[in-house]
Amino acid sequence: MYKDRFLGTDTNQLPLARELYEIMRSYPILSPHGHVDAQMLNENQPFINPVELLIKPDHYITRMLMSQGVTFDEIHSGDPRTAWKVFTSHWQAFRSTPSRIWMLETFNSLFEISDNNLAERPDYLYDQIQERLADSDFLPQSLFAKFGIEVLATTNATSDSLSDHLALASLDLGGRVIPTFRPDDVSDPEHPAWRSSLLALENSSGQECGSFESLMKALRIRRDYFVSRGATATDHGVLSARTINATQDSKESLFARLLAGESTPEDASTFRAIMLFEHARMASEDGLVMQLHPGSLRNYDASVFRDFGADKGFDIPLETHYVKELAPLLEVFGFNPNFRMVLFTLDESAYSRELAPLAGAYPSLRLGPPWWFHDSLNGMERWRESVTETAGFYNTVGFIDDTRAFCSIPVRHDVARRFDAGYLSREVARHRISKSDAVELAADIAYNLSKDFFRL
């Protein structure tokens, strides 16, 4: 592969870009938000086949294939070799997408495959990968060490036992696997598992949840448990960033209506906004970093959700606003020295209009990197150009891979580091920063920003 890929095209800037990239690639990987299964790491079993390893966990792959007329069954059911041929026969659909870049980088770095034409030799490639999967050094825990991961955060439901994390903490992996507290299941009364999740919360916390006050007690118990297992953050996948600072009486009456099944859709929306505020209150108390991921209409296709479940590539972005929505929260916690929040968006129009001005003013806020559909070379470019002049570099956090595809973690970080090395070299060429600034920023973007803000 071209050694200077993604570092930029200006030959005058390449020497500095190479130098900055070497600085960035020397740092271990910090992954403070992702969705890799801790059970997979703990059990440490061989990966079954190339489809289970590379295709099924990657919703970018799934949604692109379905856009080309491939059915979900063709990808996820039946013979894996057949599914692999379906994938390779549609390889052309991934041209110029980040999925293609990540896949080629993975092929090259893990399997020593440099063939760009997957469709021509699908069986050969399948067999070559399958043979590699049988090697003892390709077990999940061996790969964890090989990838140079210092911290890998998973995402865990409110009542997760975290037994796999406890087991992993006793192993010498070369890095840590920590949980992230994600209370969406009990914070959204329209969540299909809301009532069962409340019952699970009661069982796991030992605290009944018959009132709003008792619900808060139960959540604090669980947050403390997550902290005891190494958690440093929470994650909130919400439809809207709306927050409400409600009175205790109104919170209790609303929760009672929800439990009685007498609520309206507006009641559900109000409860979500109240809960987001209350999660911020708890974050200001226990110091867990609050990650806000709004603006995704989850499980958009009802038939895919019904037949195959959540997280199958059919979460679709919505227009998202932050300024008015977060005002009640920031009024109370924006300057609290113990409160920290990372803001993400799928709505790029909010970058310069809302997000950068907010993060450029409140010490509690940082901007998360381009998320999901915008986790791409073009997306990184748009993000840096939109937010840097207002928020600077130091009101952002480092790269976050946000992936279920374990083997894509190192290549995603590498692509981001290559882009940022090129971007910083261009900033020097534009006389906006000095070379010494760029050298310092290279280390901060690759490692220090996430290390410090997430308290890793």
UniProtKB/TrEMBL annotation:
UniProt entry keywords in alphabetical sequence: Isomerase
Catalytic reactions on record: D-glucuronate = D-fructuronate
EC nos: 5.3.1.12
Alphabetical GO biological process terms: D-galacturonate catabolic process; D-glucuronate catabolic process
GO molecular function: glucuronate isomerase activity
Pfam family, one: UxaC
Pathway(s) per entry: Carbohydrate metabolism; pentose and glucuronate interconversion
PANTHER family: URONATE ISOMERASE (PTHR30068:SF4)
UniProt family annotation: Belongs to the metallo-dependent hydrolases superfamily. Uronate isomerase family.
Name this protein carries in UniProt: Uronate isomerase
Organism: freshwater metagenome
